[in-house]
Structure to design on (911 residues):
């Protein structure tokens, strides 16, 4: 019923005024503390070191070298012959050369163990957009996706905010390295049914954020079987696939489908992005790869709301179709990330801190539960605050990732120089020493 | 039979994406047989795409003189890393500054914009959808004057669940908005049990190519003030106003009416983009401007789902900060648009076809009523099909824009060379001439029954008139 003279407080939508954007969690609060007092080697050596941002800054030199030698990728060549065509290109199919390059890049990352058809690639402005878009397509408002915990805090917003969809967590435990089990999936499914919620799919991140570990092939098979049994979708967010320290340790859902002759594959959709592997979050390059024709068509149409700048598509088409470059990049990037990981694990171990077993990503999953005053969420938040304000490190508390056990923290290691990482490790070491002395 | 994968959302399986409309079908026909001066001179000429291709040389020469902007350099130093990492949804400050200053310049600096109130989005497509998410619940409605841009059916309704209720405008007053049309639309919404959240206008208008008069703007403001609803002014074509009476922005009217501290001030939102004025639709640069802090805050967070590439933000911040360039571009672009529009209007005149008098946009709103076999939308479709398949021109039928009167077509003039435009006009002229000689021939044949036929014809007009189809 149309109403006249409404009060200003009701004229915005519920979505606009809701808290589902999730920005009030400590995940974001830590960022604020960092923004207010950011560490700088020379100008602010006692500032907060940002270890809550999963950025990859270890391989820019390779990208810059490439660009230095291939100016036509960025300035459209002398006299800009390709400029106008590029500037006009808003076709939601995306630049063919870019899709081909992307598909090829994804194949290289998987060591050629899976094939990708460029015509099944839908381009979106980042994985953030890809995940939201898929949720719009796979779920109605009120429906749910099952997401294994701990998970990326951003999902609370990306999957739920505007879509009206729900997340039902699939609980995991440290006792088996937080691996997903069929039992946990079944439990989550039952919980949803008990709440009268329609489950539409499972959404995985593989390699996992925040665990920094690949999912075992057998676990993936189980998850796929579960999804098939329940006749639901399976979304595999493989945004960190190129950040696995050893190429052979990553199994993509695509490989499993291929091994199964693509039987029942129309329920599977893969999300990818260049924000982590290539370290280009600012360029907004995400993609959905779906084995379901209707999803591809619909996603493509919906991508109108979130197209990738054609200028950026052009740049990356050039870069990623240079196979020699990409092969070298992938290999070197893996090595550098592995080195960083080993450095932080050793440094933490020296300080008496253990992490869960990791083999991928831009972070490690650190266990500080022995330090908790109380083994509760409150205890964890208290510890987090003291690390933020006393040790001056912004790390991400497990509770913001919906971890079922308190005391775990995600610590990023690839978004700073080696020197800064040393400083951070030293601060942690001192912090642990002080606690030891204090407790004596 | 085992359970087939039928598990997609209602949004995925409905037709609200609107891609089955003639607007898109025409494009498909064009894609199958596109005109090319050399390779396919008898192909279909695309006149259904509102692109601005007239001023690329200005952009290209700027790029050639300023290689740093696209080369990730600032003052000779590489800023590649900083840009690559920059994903702050508040946007690149330099770019926002340059953008709001550009927007002010387009408005003759009669109004100014605060860069803290602007939200960057991947195109106006994203901006309009985002505003719907911020201002309306699923099932609520926005009023839009007809005829309107066919894309709105998808952009405003598809994923948001918002409804559009048309404000019917007619040729009797050059399709201007009247207060009775506004009231009628409001009541129609009520009849359909839809709560109206606001009005959305495109100014300058697509497809009319006209700027809104001060009178209309005042009418709108009074209407939304009285009803306590929002007003969205999509000013995507603001930089394409090439002749008088000139462009009056809604912000100007708000200022004139001293509305700065009133409630309605917070309910007016502007959408902008660089896709039309600068001809850069591929770069996905759109913006929402709002005086309401909550809207700015919510829209900013939502822009996470459609951020502008930092690479592109940087390039354009350099371009738009060059005031010498922008001043020259704005004036030269207008000149060229005006020249093109005149070419088309005069050419159509010679073919006995009139257009709505226009002063903006990349298209003309063309009156082909006299070529219809009957005053119906069926006849409009027939004529449209003939024009696409026989005359080989893709133009947009008024029904796809929800026009209430059959016979109007939107014809674009800025997305092709002058030669191609002249060819298109020639083809149309020949088509009209052939129609004239045909009907003249028929008239001679049936001259004895002429008066009776006229009566019969008149009866069938009234009988066949249909409402524009929801597509």
């Amino acid at each position: 019923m149309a109403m006249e003279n409404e009060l200003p407080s009701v004229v915005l939508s519920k979505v606009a005024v809701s808290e589902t954007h999730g920005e009030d969690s400590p995940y974001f609060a830590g960022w604020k503390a960092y923004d207010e007092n950011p560490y700088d080697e020379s100008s602010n050596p006692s500032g907060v070191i940002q270890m809550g941002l999963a950025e990859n800054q270890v391989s820019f030199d390779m990208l810059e070298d490439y660009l230095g030698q291939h100016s036509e990728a960025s300035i459209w060549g002398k006299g800009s012959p390709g400029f106008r065509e590029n500037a006009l290109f808003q076709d939601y199919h995306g630049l063919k050369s870019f899709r081909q390059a992307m598909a090829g890049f994804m194949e290289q990352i998987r060591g050629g163990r899976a094939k990708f058809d460029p015509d099944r690639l839908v381009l979106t402005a980042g994985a953030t957009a890809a995940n939201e878009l898929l949720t719009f397509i796979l779920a109605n408002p009120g429906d749910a996706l099952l997401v294994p915990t701990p998970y990326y805090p951003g999902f609370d917003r990306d999957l739920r905010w505007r879509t009206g969809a729900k997340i039902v967590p699939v609980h995991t435990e440290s006792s088996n390295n937080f691996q997903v089990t069929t039992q946990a999936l079944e439990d989550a499914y039952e919980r949803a049914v008990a709440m009268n919620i329609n489950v539409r799919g499972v959404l995985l991140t593989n390699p996992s954020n925040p665990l920094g570990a690949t999912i075992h092939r057998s676990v993936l098979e189980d998850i796929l079987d579960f999804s098939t049994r329940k006749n639901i979708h399976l979304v595999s967010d493989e945004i960190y696939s190129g950040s696995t320290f050893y190429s052979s340790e990553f199994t993509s859902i695509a490989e499993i489908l291929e091994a199964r002759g693509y039987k029942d594959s129309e329920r599977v959709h893969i999300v990818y992005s260049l924000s982590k592997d290539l370290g280009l979050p600012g360029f907004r390059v995400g993609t959905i790869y779906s084995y379901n024709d209707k999803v591809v068509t619909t996603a493509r149409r919906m991508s109108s709301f979130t197209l990738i700048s054609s200028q950026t598509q052009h740049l990356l088409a050039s870069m990623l179709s240079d196979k020699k470059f990409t092969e070298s990049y992938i290999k070197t990037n893996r090595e550098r990330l592995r080195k960083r990981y080993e450095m932080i694990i050793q440094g933490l171990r020296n300080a008496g801190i253990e992490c869960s077993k990791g083999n991928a990503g831009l972070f490690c999953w650190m266990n500080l539960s022995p330090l908790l005053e109380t083994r509760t969420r409150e205890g964890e938040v208290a510890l987090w605050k003291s690390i933020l304000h006393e040790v001056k490190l912004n790390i991400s508390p497990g509770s913001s990732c919906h971890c079922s056990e308190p005391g775990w923290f995600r610590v990023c290691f690839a978004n700073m120089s080696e020197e800064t990482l040393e400083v951070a490790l030293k601060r942690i070491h001192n912090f642990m020493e002080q606690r030891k002395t204090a407790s004596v | 039979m085992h359970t087939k994968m039928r598990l997609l959302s209602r949004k995925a399986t409905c037709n609200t994406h609107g891609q089955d409309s003639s607007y898109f079908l025409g494009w498909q026909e064009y894609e199958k047989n596109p005109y090319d001066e050399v390779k396919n001179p008898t192909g279909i000429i695309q006149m259904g795409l509102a692109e601005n291709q007239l001023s690329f040389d200005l952009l290209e020469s700027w790029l050639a003189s300023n290689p740093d902007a696209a080369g990730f350099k600032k003052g000779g130093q590489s800023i590649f890393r900083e840009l690559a990492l920059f994903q702050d949804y508040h946007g690149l400050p330099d770019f926002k500054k340059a953008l709001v200053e550009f927007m002010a310049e387009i408005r003759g600096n009669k109004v100014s914009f605060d860069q803290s109130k602007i939200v960057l989005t991947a195109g106006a497509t994203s901006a309009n959808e985002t505003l719907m998410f911020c201002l309306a619940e699923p099932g609520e409605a926005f009023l839009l004057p007809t005829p309107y841009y066919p894309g709105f059916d998808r952009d405003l309704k598809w994923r948001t669940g918002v409804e559009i209720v048309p404000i019917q405008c007619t040729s009797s007053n050059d399709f201007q908005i009247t207060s009775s049309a506004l009231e009628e639309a409001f009541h129609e919404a009520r009849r359909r049990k839809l709560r109206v959240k606001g009005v959305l206008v495109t100014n300058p208008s697509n497809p009319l190519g006209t700027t809104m008069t001060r009178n209309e703007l005042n009418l709108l403001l009074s209407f939304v003030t009285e009803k306590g609803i929002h007003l969205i002014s999509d000013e995507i074509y603001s930089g394409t106003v090439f002749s008088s009476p000139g462009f009056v922005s809604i912000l100007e009217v708000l200022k004139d009416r001293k509305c700065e501290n009133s409630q309605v001030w917070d309910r007016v939102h502007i959408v902008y983009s660089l896709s039309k004025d600068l001809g850069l639709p591929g770069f996905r640069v759109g913006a929402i401007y709002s005086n309401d802090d909550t809207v700015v805050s919510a829209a900013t967070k939502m822009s996470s789902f459609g951020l502008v590439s930092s690479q592109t933000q940087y390039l354009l911040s350099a371009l738009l900060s060059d005031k010498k360039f922008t001043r020259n571009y704005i004036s030269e672009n207008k000149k060229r648009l005006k020249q093109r529009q005149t070419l088309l209007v005069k050419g159509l005149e010679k073919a006995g076809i009139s257009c709505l008098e226009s002063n903006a946009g990349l298209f003309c709103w063309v009156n082909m009523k006299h070529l219809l076999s009957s005053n119906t939308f069926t006849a409009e479709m027939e004529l449209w099909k003939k024009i696409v398949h026989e005359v080989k021109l893709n133009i947009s039928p008024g029904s796809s824009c929800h026009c209430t009167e059959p016979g109007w077509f939107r014809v674009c003039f800025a997305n092709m060379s002058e030669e191609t435009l002249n060819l298109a006009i020639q083809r149309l002229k020949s088509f009209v001439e052939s129609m004239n000689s045909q009907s003249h021939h028929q008239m001679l044949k049936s001259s004895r029954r002429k008066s009776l036929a006229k009566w019969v014809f008149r009866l069938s007009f009234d009988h066949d008139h249909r409402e524009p189809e929801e597509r």
In short: Chain A touches chain B through 82 residues (CB under 8 Å). The first strand of chain A starts at residue 49 and ends at 50. Chain A has a mean pLDDT of 93. The longest helix of chain A spans residues 323-350.
